[in-house]
């Protein structure tokens, strides 16, 4: 099973970008999405350092809500 985390692009430099989620920034590769028209402010799903799919802001928020519910159920 794979887990991808929704993150918002805050800067783009070629095939690398900086993404942010909940105050955490990470450098992410855009290599797998080189044919996609991505811009600062877009949300992407990130898996092991690679952006793998563009998602809407609503889809990203829904994912984070589910993650929060799963974590709350564990606690």
Summarize the structure.
With about 80 residues, the chain is of the alpha+beta class. It contains 1 helix and 5 strands, in the order βββββα. Strand 4 and strand 5 form a beta hairpin.
Plain-language structure description:
By secondary structure, the protein is of the alpha+beta class. The chain has a single domain (5-74), classed as Roll (SH3 type barrels), CATH 2.30.30.140. Helix content is 24%, strand content 43%. It contains 1 helix and 5 strands. The chain has one helix at residues 57-74, and strands spanning 5-13, 16-21, 24-29, 43-47, 50-55. A 5-stranded antiparallel beta sheet has the order 3-2-1-4-5, covered by helices on one side. A hairpin with a 2-residue loop joins strand 2 and strand 3 (24-29). The protein is elongated and about 40 Å long. The model has no long low-confidence stretch (mean pLDDT 95).
